[in-house]
Amino acid sequence: MKLKWLAAIMAAIHVIPAMAAEFREYPDLPSQQMVQQVLQNYPSVLAAQYGIMAGEAARDRLEAGSHELNLTGGAARRRIRETGENLRDWNVGLERALRLPRKAELDAALGQQNVALAQDGYGDAMHEAGRKLLSGWFTWLRERSSSEQWIQQVEVLKQQLLVVTRRVKAGDASQLEEDVARAALMQAEIELQQAQLRADNATASLMRHFPSLPLPPKLPAGEPQPLPQNLAYWLDLALDHNHELLLARAESRIARLSAQRADADRIPDPTVGLHYISERNGSDSITGVSVTIPLPGGARRAASAEAASRADMATQREALVLRRIEADITAAYNRAKVSYASWQSATAASGLMQRNADKMARAYALGESGLNDVLLARRQSMDARLAAVLAQLESSESFYRLLLDTHQLWHLGSEASEGHH
């Protein structure tokens, strides 16, 4: 039975790649198909798939009810003093508590809501795995980009050292200038080693979490995009699809249904029995029906009050989740807006610094400026270029994170099932 359930769940999940074609491909992100593959193999997502199986089993259990047939039996020996006769008596019976109709309806509703909760849990697991993938991907991009920038800087300083060496040989520069240029190159090589270490660590971390994710040999290129829509647009999308909010709402519904079930349980279920008694070695027989009705006490009232309080707690937790999501989306929207503007400014500044460094290099080659001015311009250009690259990645990640949290980036596997609420 478990294998059948798992096969059904996997069959439903494997339609996702076809549906993912509705989502846009971005040049600086893994493909939609690859994202679905790595997310569906993430341990928390696999655990959530079994959570759906558990939810379906819980639904079946609640629909079946906890009452079962009880078989009773007994035997006795009777001795008649006057005659000394020994007689055998025995009895057998079947008893079963009968669940009241209102309780059966509530149990069925609770079962269906347990399945909905498990499905929301699967969507939330996909969402959190998507966040992990996006964060790890951009950490890898940042560290690889930083490493490549330092590779370029080392090459530039090597060329600068060659220029200084030629001038020293020609008698146009002192040995001290060559030593300074060589020291600047060595410092850049140290920075490169540190950047490569961070890039290697970022790669290892990403591969540990998503071992089936292929990393391109060349860094993918992509340009940040502005946000034409206003904050209200993104808030509406987030509240329509947010898995954490769906989970809180499902838990709140379960708590309310549980409170109703506890209240209904204040009226005990009657037990009906069918009995057969054989007496006096079978010469007498009795067939009868029994009804047992428990008399409710304070425990049932307390259980009902406890469940009602827990339902109120769940309602307040749902309200808290809603407020936090609205705050998170607002912060993500503002971050995406500001980071896009920062990228534009950083790109413009990098261009100015690069042109200034090129001018200073040409001036030094012509003997019109000092080496320290050239090295300073080179370092400023490097810092500005690296800042522009990081600003670009920050802007792109902020934009994609907003898309992810509003289900506009990747198919997270539960949009089609959100109608169950």
Explain this structure.
The protein is α+β, with helices and mostly antiparallel strands and 421 residues long. The chain has one domain (2-68, 101-266, 309-420): Outer membrane efflux proteins (OEP) (Up-down Bundle). The protein is 68% helix and 10% strand. It has ten helices and four strands, in the order ααααββααααββαα. The protein has helices at residues 2-13, 16-19, 32-40, 43-64, 101-170, 175-209, 231-241, 243-264, 298-365, 371-405; strands at residues 70-80, 85-97, 271-279, 284-292. Strands 1-2-3-4 form a four-stranded antiparallel beta sheet, with no helix packed on it. α1 crosses α4, α5 (101-170) packs antiparallel against α8 (243-264) and α9 runs antiparallel to α10 (371-405). It is elongated and about 145 Å long.
